[in-house]
Amino acid sequence: MHVLKCMIVDDEPLPLQLLADYVKKTPFLELVGTYNNPLDALNAVQQQQVDLVFLDIQMPELTGIAFTELVGDKCSVIFTTAYRNFALEGYELNVVDYLLKPIAFDRFLKAAGKALQLVSPAPAIAAAAIPATPVLFVKSDYKLVKIAVPDILYIEGLKEYIAIHTMTGKIVTLQNIKKMETVLPAAQFARVHRSFIVALNKIDAIERNMIHIKNDVIPIGELYKAAFMKQISGSSL
């Protein structure tokens, strides 16, 4: 039996837990993440294989409608909502199903079965052979900005904000640098200072406790130095 890797996104804890319990009861579903923040979920979808998202519609920062438009055909979506008036949007976005809260298990199972029927293993294997460029979506200046991960030079912590320095410019977003560290591929990025994460393959030179990336110089913190040097000694980048 084909197993769908699924994710649940809901800003309310009770429906989030209920759907997680339903997924665990369903043999052809595998839970790969639960999120109460849609922006975190959007980044996670771009970083890993997700076949199906159970998605609340009315959420702060990013609605389920906008989320679905951004992920495109990367994964299937089942809307979960307490409101009937979004059914037309769901139809237009070609979502798999539209579940009204409170959601009974038999109705959940029927919707999940529809998603399973849409999966064709052969095309999925063929698509896996063509790796997509990983991207991040961050909120900046009241809009979502897409950033290709390979374009990132380094990330700079600015108290409650971070500045993402890329090949083409700088994007500032309200984000925690520690949280960003968990989103980035660990084999390609290193935390070198309490305020800096660097892309290993963008490093031009290391001089004493300084890293040179293009025209910028990034300090290496004493607490991070040993782990960083160990990481680059085993890196082929």
Automatic annotation (TrEMBL):
Superkingdom of origin organism: Bacteria
Keywords: Phosphoprotein
GO MF annotation: an example: phosphorelay response regulator activity
One family name in Pfam for this protein: LytTR
Domain Response regulatory: 5-116
Domain spans labelled HTH LytTR-type: 136-208
Matches recorded under PROSITE patterns: HTH_LYTTR, RESPONSE_REGULATORY
Listed InterPro entries: CheY-like_superfamily, LytR-like, LytTR_DNA-bd_dom, Sig_transdc_resp-reg_receiver
Residues recorded with modification 4-aspartylphosphate: D56
SUPFAM superfamilies linked: CheY-like
Name of the protein in its database record: Response regulator transcription factor
Species, as recorded: Chitinophaga eiseniae
Native organism taxonomy: Bacteria, Pseudomonadati, Bacteroidota, Chitinophagia, Chitinophagales
